[in-house]
Structures are given as C-alpha cells and as structure tokens.
C-alpha cells in the first residue's frame, strides 16, 4: 500500500456548533433545624423554582441533611464535583453561589497566561529565515 | 399461605389477556392524550382498534381479586383501583423502565434540553434510545432498530460531506476520516460529552435517564463473539472495493454486528454508548424529520475538529508524485534546493521545492536533502488530494424538494494514484 491513513478521533469544540452546559446536576442539601441554613431554605422556597425553570439543562435535587451546614454540590460532565458550603448566607448569596456552580466548567482552576488557545494553526505560519526578502549585509 | 387466584380460574370469562406492557411506548400515553395526528386519529377511529382496547379496560377486576393475595399486592391493587387504570406489574419484574416513567425523570428532561431538542421530541422515545438490546431483548422497547437507522444516517451524512467537499481524497483517508467523525470511539466520546451516565444494572426500577445495558465484567467468559476484534488473515480478494461494498463505513474487514445479536449478552459500556448516539439520530429522524437531524448532525458531529492534513501516511511519496504527474500529463517532478543553512554544522536545514516545469508543486524542509525532498513530495501530494471545490451541494440538501434547479453536479475524481 503506497498510502495508509492514521486513525484518530475528532476533537470536541464545545460552543463551535452546539453548546453543552458542563454542569449537569446540582444537589441542594439543607437542614430544617439548623440556623445556618436559614438563607438556603429561603432560597429553595422562593428562588429555586425560577432558577430551575431558567436552566432546564440541569437536574436539580433537593434533600434534607440534618445537623449539618447547608451545601450545594455541582456535578459536571467531566465527572468532577464541586461542593460549596453556604452556611449563614443570605438567599442572594446562595443564588450567587448557585450561578457560580452553573457557570463553572468542572475543570480544576488553572492560570491562563495566553490570550488565545486554539487547535488551528496560525494563518500567518511560523516565521522562517529562509523565505521572504533577502537581507543585504 | 398461597391461594388459588380466582382470576386465573375465571380467565375464560374475561376474554383475551391484555399484553403485559403496551406494545408501543406511546400506547400508554395515548389512552389519555387526544390524538392530534390525522393518521393516528384514523387508526383510533377504526372499530378494530377499539375492540382491541377493550381488554385493557376490564383489567381492573383481576387486580381487585389479587388484593387478597398479600399485603404488597394489596397496596398496589388499591392504588390501581383508585386511579382506575390498568394495573402495572411491579417495576422490578420489567427488564427496562416502563415508558410512562419517562415523564417523571428529571435526568431525561435535563438531557433533552441539554441537547437543545425541541419539546415535541417525546421523552418516552428518548428513554427508549437509552435501552440497549442487552438490557431488554424486546425489540419494541430497546434501541436496536433505531440504532440501525441512525448508523445509516450518520454514515450517509458523513460520507457525502467528505466526498463532495474533498473529491480527490484517497479511500483509506476517507475511511479514517469517517472513523474520526462517527467511529465507535468517537460516538462513545460524544455520549460521555453529552453527560450520559450508565446504570449499574438494567431493570424496571432504574431511573429511565440512565444508560441501560448488561455490563461486561473484565475477564468475562461469555463476551459476545460479534464484538471481538479478530485480526483476519490477509486475503487477496479483500480489496478496497470489497471494503466499500460489504463491510462497515470504516473499511474494517467485517460488518458491524446486528444489534439484535447482542440481546442478553454482556457488552462493554462503549458499545452501549455508541448504540445510544446512533439510536438518538434515528429517533430524531423519525420524529423531527431530516432538516432538523441534519442541523443536529452539523452542530454535534461536523463541528468537531479534525485535521485531514494529518491523516495521511505516505510510504513512498516521491514515487507517488511522479506517477501522479505522469497520469495527469504534467511534466515529471524535479526537486530543487531553495535555500539551506549550516550544511557542515550539527543542525543543517535544507528547504527543497518540488517543481513540475515552472510550477512549484510543494515545498518541505528537513535536516537532510533527502528528508526535505520527501517532505516536499508529501506536501505536493497533500495539495492535490485535499483539493476542495468552492461551492458544493450535497445530495441530502435537496431531499424532498420539488425545485431541483439549485443542484450543481459535484466533481468526481478518478481516484488516488495506483503505484
């Protein structure tokens, strides 16, 4: 065979065609007794239905967990989880944390130094000393 | 204490036994949903269907009689008689979740909106696409048939995209590109990127939003032979044409296993995930029609990044190039040195161009003259094979359209060079 081909798998580019929200599940754990989950309980009662309606891609589970601080756990498509303790927070604070979990990608937090990361080659190409106008010394 | 069931004794009085489960996932729904489609309406209007429905309605009686049997049965029968619906068997006895439970699954609803599917795509069908034949052998409830349709659609859309956009692509590269877009590994990856979770064990009581299949454990003896990778010995009559015609779309030596072959056999999770993705495409086609499926395919499959440039693996590019030039009637290719540096140093760099007459076909750089020449020939061949026409109309874009004036015939190339 003069020519053979290399088997690979095409790489995903989330957002180029379709966008898939990376947060797939949010678990809300609250306590009816503990005072630290007062804000959480208010959030669940008043704002969570609206949040669930606005974000139908996310499966939402609400479950009581006695004698513990309230916690929100985000489950992501890459298999990771991200728990945030929301003790003594106001309903607004809990909403902010919920939105933070919704928008997170599930990846570990990384420092991004480069302004652009791309799979595509540079259009201009790599500079070559052998091409272009000859330099007269 | 076990008693004789009166219902069983008096069975001859009650007519035909109703099927244990409705024959179609929608039949459970249809009883309380007004038919909206004219064809369904016609079917329901016929007296034959009404007669067929009757046994379902008298089904309540045996449930009440069965109430004597045990306390578990009692509670179930009470709920059944209070809602006046045919009694459902306990979910543990079913091989896969009952279609009516799909509406209550949060996972399914989340999956549907995660994939931006319209609400008219029913959740029951989405639940059915998640049931692999290894979990439920009944072809009315598993995704076997839909995955066959989906596999053919995926193959069709990918092939037409590749062949129309890159008419000169060699066949082995076409196979590799198909494998990269819709091969088994790609589909399993796509399923995991859609956030599909697998059930530990299939069953009627499992959440219908989970992928249901019988798991193959490592070291399983009864691994299905249809899935085993067998390295077939070389045969003179397995040609490229044979691969195109008689095997799957990836040019492997044998065809894809029939989904119904895998009923009841343990399979790896990749196999189940692939069949889900294929079945989803098939069911989208049936429910939403081809334009929406094409859009879905473009968004989720074609949008993935694949560098066709990197799929080529030439053995003798210089010979191929001279054969190509001879075939196309160009002048024989000549390699010329464009520039060089450090010929006598530890890291020399040569830039070589391949010329046919006055036209430069390709250029490559390398640390030896030969390396640079071979790279230049490979670049020239890639330039030829990766030719892309500017305007392309794929055959499926005119499907079902009356006006065919938009059709522009595609370029058909005579193929790769044969050395």
TrEMBL record, chain A:
It comes from the Eukaryota. GO terms for biological process: mitochondrial translation. GO terms for cellular component: mitochondrial large ribosomal subunit. Residues 32-105 form the Ribosomal protein/NADH dehydrogenase domain. Pfam families: L51_S25_CI-B8 (PF05047). Keywords: Mitochondrion, Ribonucleoprotein, Ribosomal protein. GO terms for molecular function: structural constituent of ribosome. InterPro entries: Ribosomal_mL43, Ribosomal_mL43/mS25/NADH_DH, Thioredoxin-like_sf. It is found in: Mitochondrion. Belongs to the mitochondrion-specific ribosomal protein mL43 family. This is Large ribosomal subunit protein mL43.
Automatic annotation (TrEMBL), chain B:
Residues 108-196 form the RNase III domain. Residues 64-100 are annotated as: Disordered. Its main location: mitochondrion. GO terms for biological process: RNA processing. Gene3D superfamilies: 3.30.160.20, Ribonuclease III domain (1.10.1520.10). Residues 316-386 form the DRBM domain. InterPro entries: dsRBD_dom (IPR014720), Ribosomal_mL44_DSRM_fung (IPR044443), Ribosomal_mL44_DSRM_metazoa (IPR044444), RNase_III_dom (IPR000999), RNase_III_sf (IPR036389). CDD domains: DSRM_MRPL3_like. Signal peptide: none annotated. It is found in: Mitochondrion. GO terms for cellular component: mitochondrion. Keywords: Mitochondrion, Ribonucleoprotein, Ribosomal protein, RNA-binding. Residues 86-98 have a biased composition (Pro residues). It holds the Pfam family DSRM_MRPL44. GO terms for molecular function: double-stranded RNA binding; ribonuclease III activity; structural constituent of ribosome. Belongs to the ribonuclease III family. Mitochondrion-specific ribosomal protein mL44 subfamily. This is Large ribosomal subunit protein mL44.
